[in-house]
Amino acid sequence: MRIYSWNVNGLRAILKKGFMEWFIVESPDIICLQETKLQESQLEESFKNIEGYYSNFSFADKKGYSGVATYSKEEPVSVKHGIGIERFDSEGRILETEFKNITVLNIYFPNGQMNEERLKFKLDFYDALLDYCNSLVSTGKKLVICGDYNTAHTEMDIKNAKANEKTSGFLPIEREWLDKLISNGYTDTFRYVNKEEIKYSWFSYMFKARERNVGWRIDYHFVSNNMLPYVKDAKILNEVTGSDHCPVVVELSESNLKDQL
Predict the structure, then answer these.
(1) Cα 171 from Cα 142, distance rounded (Å)
(2) Distance CA 83, CA 88 (A)
(3) Domain boundaries defined on the chain
(4) Quick one: pLDDT at residue 259?
(5) How far is Cα 28 from Cα 130, in angstroms, rounded to an integer?
(6) Is 76 exposed, middle or buried (CB count within 10 Å of its CB: 0-12, 13-18, 19+)?
(7) Rounded Cα gap, residues 261 and 255, in angstroms
(8) d(CA 155, CA 170)
(9) C-alpha distances out from residue 186 to 13, 59, 76, 89, Å
(10) Residue 93 near residue 129, CB atoms below 8 Å
(11) Which of 61, 21, 60 is nearest to 69 (CA)?
(12) Going by CATH, does the domain composed of 2-257 fall within 3.60.10.10?
């Protein structure tokens, strides 16, 4: 079973860049998209009803901003928008799709680079989400938490660590939260599978950053540790273009999951 996550930087924009053709060829079991940048009134049939998939969307109150979408071959048992905190939920950043014994959280984490207020919002969001995830795990749920986390964890996950140590996205306080996430019983699947591999998931559009491999790894599939027995592979698809982010994929053991969806 393959679960994809991709910040598409505008769903309508990426549809003009071969997204649907790529989608059909890849045939993901589940794909979580972030930064869709559309409202419900702008949902066209071409990407609302993709043959063979159930689709669910969360929208920000603000037009042309944020938003996430999840497509799945299996129909979710339940779908939830947000975590019950209005200041976060109004930005359309969280979409929870629950299957029989697996819960997938598709999340577009805030960016803290605008100002101190937004950095605080980001850190508050982080803590509220962790509390929410812990509450789900405490009931026995198995979580896949995927999306654009907007933070590179270690120096392995960013090309120019020293130059960015005072930049939001690589601040010590942001990186410490990822340490906290791990200490609470969650695992970064890419690093779990690829312990020493240097690979990035986001590249600036400026200065030919992708061609020069000057990037950040800020897109993740974290899983609750009760999901680790199912993790088979994890990768970043650097060859896929159309956004400043690259798709990231986690593959779960099909034989172990057959009775869980």
Answers:
(1) 30
(2) 8
(3) 2-257
(4) 53
(5) 27
(6) buried
(7) 11
(8) 9
(9) 33, 27, 23, 23
(10) no
(11) 60
(12) yes
- Is residue 148 part of the annotated active site? The answer reads yes
pTM summary value: 0.96
Q: Which of 29, 127, 131, 148 is catalytic?
A: 148
pLDDT of residue 257: 60
Q: What is the pLDDT of residue 258?
A: 57
Q: What is the pLDDT along the chain (261 residues), one digit of tens a residue?
A: 999 999 999 999 999 999 999 999 999 999 999 999 999 999 988 889 999 999 999 999 999 999 999 999 999 999 999 999 999 999 999 999 999 989 999 999 999 988 999 999 999 999 999 999 999 999 999 999 999 999 999 999 999 999 999 999 999 999 999 999 999 999 999 999 999 999 999 999 999 999 999 999 999 999 999 999 999 999 999 999 999 999 999 999 966 565 554
Q: How long is the chain?
A: 261
Q: Parallel, antiparallel, or unpaired for β 142-148 and 102-108?
A: parallel
**Distance in angstroms (rounded) separating the CA atoms of residues 186 and 144:** 9
Q: Is 208 left (phi over 0), alpha (psi -120 to 50) or beta?
A: left
C-alpha dihedral, 150 to 152 to 157 to 163, nearest 10°: 110
